[in-house]
Specification:
This is DUF1489 family protein. By secondary structure, the protein is α+β, with helices and mostly antiparallel strands. It contains 3 helices and 8 strands. Strand 2 and strand 3 (36-41) form a beta hairpin.
Length: 150
């Protein structure tokens, strides 16, 4: 009997203080835990193993729009500044732009089903041609999305 791959499950989380995927790329280069980029959160996902085994990503909401994703490579525990336990979502350095999609604010993170995730933009997207959208500045992509043109 062959082992069956877990279904892909993603996460989604807002970024506070970041204005573009380009800025996130800069943050990823600086914010490191044992040499790996990470995202801080309070609670360990109960389905962490499903996310990692299924090749899940964390989709990032910037200024009210899902703008990009980062593949998740693992999870680790840490102690927050207030002494309480926390979780680090270990992510790839790769910040992959996605088709912008509006998203209302929410606290913390949420599980995100593959069918709800926006497609990747630009080169490397398996099912989309390189339409030049990914080369537009993030602010212009935001405006186009808000107008319903993307």
């Amino acid at each position: 009997m062959s082992a069956q791959k877990a279904p892909t499950l993603h996460m989604i989380k807002l970024i506070v203080g970041c204005t573009s995927p380009e800025m996130l790329r800069d943050w990823v280069a600086v914010e490191r835990h044992r040499g790996t980029a990470y995202v801080r959160t309070r609670t360990m996902p109960k389905r962490a193993e499903d996310i990692v085994q299924g090749g899940g990503s964390i989709y990032r909401v910037i200024n009210g729009l899902i703008m990009c994703r980062q593949p998740i490579i693992g999870f680790d525990s840490y102690t927050r500044d207030d002494g309480h336990p926390g979780t680090l979502i270990l992510v790839s350095d790769e910040v992959i732009p996605t088709q912008p999609r509006p998203m209302r604010p929410f606290q913390g993170w949420r599980y995100f089903k593959p069918e709800d995730a926006p497609p990747d933009l630009g080169k490397g997207a398996a099912d989309l041609p390189d339409d030049g959208i990914s080369s537009l500045p993030a602010s212009l992509r935001n405006q186009l999305s808000e107008l319903g043109l993307l």
